Amino acid sequence: MSVDKIARLLRKRPPTGRFREQMFWLVDIVYACKRSDDEQLAAEAALVEEALGRLGEFIQTGNEDALQEATRCVERFALAVKDAVASDGHSEG
After folding, report:
1. Helix crossing, 3-12 with 19-34: angle to 10°?
2. Helices and strands, number each (H, E), in the chain
3. Mean pLDDT, to the nearest integer, of 73-87?
4. How many CA atoms does the CB half-sphere of 3 hold within 13 Å?
5. Residue ranges of domains in the chain
6. Which one of 32, 48, 67, 93 has the fewest beta carbons within 10 angstroms of its own beta carbon?
7. In sequence order, what are the residues at sequence separation of 6 or more whose Cβ sits closer than 8 angstroms to the Cβ of residue 67?
8. Residues 70 and 51: beta-carbon distance below 8 Å
9. pTM of the full predicted structure?
């Protein structure tokens, strides 16, 4: 999948503020990036996919460290996607 297709996905389905919709949107972006031709995006997507599993650990145990690590991974992933889309000549908004 090209960065162009990821950029279109970002524009097509922005999250509306509801947690469930944001999570499904994020998972769609993760899968798109894992299938992308961009090796850095694919690697970041794999890391964020693992981090999302830590959310379950937080819910089960209340481990704040798991939540913080997942948050950091998602934030790093968001910046990587934003940079990749911007460097490919696309705007998110």
Report:
1. 170
2. 4, 0
3. 88
4. 17
5. 3-87
6. 93
7. 54, 55, 58
8. yes
9. 0.75
